Amino acid sequence: MTVLMPESLDEACAMLAEGIAKNGEAPTPIAGATDLFVEWPLHADAHSRSYLDMSGATELRAASIEDDAVHLGALTTYWDVVVNHPLVAEFPLLLEAARQVGSVQIQTRGTWAGNIANASPAADGVPVLMAYDATVVVQSEARGRRAIPLDQFYLGYKKTQLAPDELIVDISLPRGLRSVEIFEKVGTRRAQAIAKVGLAITHSEAGWRVVAASMAPVVTRCAHVEHMLEEQKIVKTPQDFLNAIEADVSPIDDVRSNARYRKTVMSRLLYHDLKARCAWIE
Amino acid sequence: MRRLEGLAKLTGAERFIDDEPFEGLWGMTVRSPFPRGRVRELRFSDSIDWSEFTVVTHEDIPGANAVYLMELDQPVLAGEYVRHVHEAVALVAHPSRAMAREAIAGIEIIVDPDEPVYDYRVTPDQSQVQYGEDNILKRLLIDKGDVEAALAQADHIVEGVYETGAQEHVYLENQGMIARVEDGVVVVRGSMQCPYYVVNALKHALGRAEHEVRVIQAPTGGGFGGKEDYPSIIALHTALLTLKAGGAPVKMIYDRSEDMAATTKRHPSRVRHRTGLDAEGRLVAQHIEVVMDGGAYVTLSPVVLSRGIIHAAGPYACDNVRIEGRAVLTNAVPFGAFRGFGAPQTHFANERHMDVVAKQIGMDPVELRRVNLIREGQTTATGQVITGGADRVGLMDRALELAQFNEKRREHDSFNVANQYLRRGVGLATFHHGAGFTGSGEVYLASRLLVEGLEDGRVEVLTASTEMGQGMLTIFTDIASQALGLEPGDIVLRDPDTSRAPNSGPTVASRTAMVVGRLVEKACEAMRARLGVDKHTRGEELKRAIVEWRRQHPDERLVGESQYEQPPNVNWDDETYQGDAYATFSWGAYVAEVEVDLRTFNTRVLDFVAVQEVGRVLNETLARGQVQGGVVQGIGWALLEEMRTRDGAMINNQLTNYIIPTSDDVPSIRVEFQEEPYEFGGGGAKGLGELPMDGPAPAIANAVAAALNVDPKVIPLTSERLMELMETVATS
Ligand SMILES: Cc1cc2nc3c(=O)[nH]c(=O)nc-3n(C[C@H](O)[C@H](O)[C@H](O)COP(=O)(O)OP(=O)(O)OC[C@H]3O[C@@H](n4cnc5c(N)ncnc54)[C@H](O)[C@@H]3O)c2cc1C
Q: Which of A143, B98, B210, B653 sits at 20 to 30 Å (Cα–Cα) from B123?
């Protein structure tokens, strides 16, 4: 095992490029390592890889609030957000999601960018970021920076737009007023759980955002549900959401739950959570 | 008294077997990927230099290829035939753990498959029969009065079928063992509950005499029954490897996924009730059929079934009871001992059924229990006359009072109307648990214990009883120090070592404080007798007497010995299953309050009250801990813990996917004891360890039933299962 320890972002990007040029493979970036090391004991190939420890790229640590957007540097942890009161006052779902991630130990190590890059369909950080219209900024030595809207970041199960020589450097969230903000994590138990159903909902001038986790190969926006809400289509029972849900997501039966439960629960969460806020949901 | 080893565990100073400095070979197990079939061949990969490895197969077993337990059907290593996935077929050892791990993947097991059987509830096809004529490992019957005649006259007859799932122990410390040969003796040290079970297993399969094997219990991080029988297998495996490797130390530590996949679980069960009642709600007939999944070998299933059926009629008086029990072979990884040992399964069915009965006959479930709870002088299903112990009705009333049961019911009525999707309910369970081995078990065990006066006046207690987190060290130290008037620091208890400590029986069945604790007291008396002093010689005076005696008898040991004697008037007939099934029972009444979220079908336990009588409470803190831990384990079994299987083997064998409760899933648990010293128990104690596993699941399920007006009959009542139940109710 080799661990590379760059001292700046640029050096980190250079090391990625160099790894590809020399070995045909980029070193694996390490942020909080809370995802990377879970599988460590089980996967022998993880032991022989080379790694890139990003902790020296201190410029990625800060979270900042600018005029039109807030920025979470790629090394921003859940805990950094939890204790950032102005930030969570404006983006309360960040706090809700952060406090639902693992335990405090995980919250103090795990990063938002790691959650995005890891591309788990059950991620808790990604849905709220997506519901806040997050943009992911990535950087490589060869091509510099580019911005990718988070809702276009995922290509398929565990597949993203991130190129091997790229690092996520920043997550930006546009500022603005929102009239609805909801986060739901239905886990297998109350804490330390992987989501069976995750849901983040916002409403602002930009419209409705309904983001589902653990409902499809990737965390995904639910266009049909959003459309129903935009149209203010009359909803009388939770089942009225099921057609739209079927069109938007494709949950599976797995070791944690089953597809029917996931769809039913999503419909019931939508119904009950929105009922108090939307006159057209009866 | 403070828990003796508490600080060492808290600070991490305690050394479990995996913490021992170790130089030697790492052992790994080659396991069957097939559920059933004839083993044709073991194919060793050419890409591995096998001369570097110690390899053991069934051909290397010097004695009988059988794990010594109730029957000798389970091989130490499968030879010609495999009966379950993960069954051990061969062993490999190497100085490098990683190499050993790689090597096991280099051994391919070639099997001609036969038709496996997985569902213990259905009659097997002829091609699936592997035990007797019908795969039934054990059949038991309790018959009291005339059930059919009583049913014919009953005002009400209520039926119900209840099922419980497997449960994994999740002891924090995985199974582990180190074996070596020292001066011709096979020495095994590791995590276990029952050192002499391991001795017997080693003697039998290694063809050795008792003095040629030595078993030492290392500090053990939890057992819950999971380290009752299984450690014998790892001990045998490490012992076979060390013998093959010329006596070099061999260590085996299961990682969590291997431990969960390959070791025992609680027996799944199905219980059918057919109950007759008179117009006042008095039980006139209980017909109960209990079926348990035994898995692929007999192991302990007959005795788990036995305890299960003996508790199946609950803590109620009824003149006509017929209980039929069956343990059935399947090609699942064998099920084994788990806290409660069959009783939680049958108590779940019975206590859930009581609420179903109450609803059907239009009676308050509390009143139904009040009418039927067993009174002084009445008899259990086996005809055991109940005398002494706490008043069962009083215990129940105290639990209801602490839980504010009736107030809560009223509050919930309005809460449930007002709330959009949250529903609340309270549920009650009343139950009992027999302490010590069933029937004549304790007589057969004939447990022994020694107390020895040391040269410096301190006193050592020599016992094979084990500490596994439950508090044995503290309790025995306390009992001995009180018996002798010595400071706790003057009592010595070392890791149980079968070369020094006599067979005090296994550390199971809630028997340690009650049965073996009593032996501590008696051995202290015997030592005093040997010293020639009476019970007034205590403390410093006693110490001086010990020192003096040792000085005068330099070549002798000053020991007091005790052996189990059955309390008077305890009679049990193994043939008819009638008589005193246990010397005594502990009693409990638990109340759970739950909230169900109808958006997610998640059930949350909001409040829990646990009132019980367990004789005298020897150590309040430890006793509370036992109850609270049992309740948490019960919450897990009732709501969360589901073993998912493929080919009879667990596939969610990781803590990520096998969901046990965290502190956030646990409500405040209010524990109260009503003390009634038990004359024949150590310090007046009865059994405590298992009782708290019996009540939580039915109390919780009854609370869910009250909240939703549905009748859950299967646990774990996961959100998915509750959703289905609600849907069936909605459509019917
Ligand atoms: C006990 C436990 C509980 C958990 N509970 C939850 C939970 O409740 N909800 C949840 O969503 N997750 C949970 N996780 C998963 C994990 O903590 C989160 O996904 C976390 O956000 C990962 O961040 P990290 O910084 O630790 O990522 P790492 O493990 O360091 O990296 C994860 C992946 O992202 C890549 N990566 C990291 N940063 C970058 C970057 N800047 N650019 C490019 N690639 C990058 C890495 O190479 C790796 O492939 C849990 C993990 C554990 C161990």
A: B653
Q: What H or E segment, with its residue span, contains residue B372?
A: helix B365-372
Average pLDDT, chain B: 97
Spacing, Cα A150 to ligand 1 middle (Å): 16
Residue type, B543: K
pLDDT at residue A87 tops 90: yes
ipTM, interface predicted TM-score of the complex? 0.96
Whether residue A224 lies within 8 A of chain B, CB to CB, comes out as no
Mean pLDDT of the B201-225 span:
98
Q: What is the DSSP string of B259-305?
A: HHHHS--PPPEEEEEEEEE-TT--EEEEEEEEEEEEESS-TTHHHHH
Question: In terms of Cα–Cα distance, which of A170, A175, A266 is closest to A222?
Answer: A266
Domains of chain B: 6-114+169-262 (3.90.1170.50), 269-437+577-731 (3.30.365.10), 447-563 (3.30.365.10)
The rounded distance, in Å, linking the Cα atoms of B477 and B454 is 15
Could you write out the DSSP letters of every residue in B316-346?
B--S-EEEEEEEEE-SSSPP---TTTTHHHH
Task: Flag whether pLDDT at B732 surpasses 80.
Answer: no
Q: Ligand 1 centre and the CA of B593: distance in Å?
A: 37
Q: Which residues contact B542 (CB under 8 A, 6 or more apart)?
A: B457, B484, B485, B486, B528, B531, B533
B-chain CB neighbours of A193 within 8 Å are 659
Asked whether the beta carbons of A16 and A26 are under 8 A apart, the reply is yes
Spatial separation of the C-alpha atoms in residues B49 and B46, rounded to whole Å: 7
Contact B278, B155 (CB under 8 A): yes
- Interface contact B255-A268, CB threshold 8 A: no
Of B601, B661, B723, the CB nearest to A189: B661
Please tell me the distance in Å from B662's CA to the nearest CA on chain A.
7
Which band of pLDDT confidence, cut at 50, 70 and 90, is reported for residue A278? very high
pLDDT at A39 over 80: no
Give contacts of B720 with chain A, Cβ < 8 Å.
257-258, 261
Structure tokens at B371: 């009418």
How close is the nearest chain A Cα to the Cα of B294, in Å?
Answer: 24
Q: Tens of pLDDT along B451-508?
A: 999 999 999 999 999 999 999 999 999 999 999 999 999 999 999 999 999 999 999 9
pTM, two decimal places: 0.97
Question: Measured in angstroms, how far is the CA atom of residue A147 from the centroid of ligand 1?
Answer: 21
